[in-house]
Amino acid sequence: MELGVHFRLNDDEARRVLDAAGDDERLHDVIGELEADDAIWQRACETDKAWDPIACALAPEGDDGEWPARGVIGGARALQADDEECWVTHLDPGEAAEVAGYLATLDDATFAGAYRRMPDELRNPEFGDDEQAYALAMLAGLREFFAAAAADRQHVVFTVWG
């Protein structure tokens, strides 16, 4: 499994990503440029491999999951062409604020319950107490990240490359 990263982006930075939507090679290049920009990287939130159990616990139905829970990882829209190559999602500032509000009310016990109810077919081989604790630690960082995105009216882009 690959590593996930969320970026907080201003309008101009987000426009570069949105302009590359549907062209995975170009999208990969733009994301690489964002990763290499120290100022942008300072605002990023690495979710490592925890993005997967977080997404599967909060939105086991994927794109059909409840909003804004599915937006934490799945965003409001996917930007990639090939789901097997990568997953790149986007939230505009208003959507990011909705996700921030949701995360502010999502306590650890509620997440733990959702994690335990995760459908068997979505569970990783690491499923259990250690993975849950790992996901909760990353979720704490996402709460702060999304709160900052909402406060600064920023776009959020999530990326993971296969």
Computed CA radius of gyration, to the nearest angstrom: 15 Å
- Oligomer state equals single chain
Note the overall shape: globular
N- to C-terminal separation?
A: 7 Å
Q: Report low-confidence residues grouped into runs of 5 or more.
A: none
Helix content: 40-55%
Q: Biggest β-sheet: count, sense, barrel?
A: 5 strands, antiparallel
Content of β-strand: 15-25%
Secondary-structure-derived class = alpha+beta
Arrangement of strands in the largest sheet? 2-1-5-4-3
Order of helices and strands, N to C?
EHHHEHHEEHHHE
Counting DSSP H or I runs of 4 or more residues, the number of helices is: 8
Say how many strands there are: 5
Mean pLDDT equals 96
Provide structural commentary.
It is built from eight helices and five strands. The protein is 52% helix and 15% strand. Strands 2-1-5-4-3 form a five-stranded antiparallel β-sheet, with helices on both faces. By secondary structure, the protein is α+β, with helices and mostly antiparallel strands.
What's the structural blueprint in terms of helices and strands?
Blueprint: E1 4-9, H1 11-19, H2 24-36, H3 38-42, E2 45-48, H4 51-58, H5 71-74, E3 77-78, E4 86-91, H6 93-105, H7 108-116, H8 129-151, E5 155-161
Helix pairs in contact: 4-7, 6-8
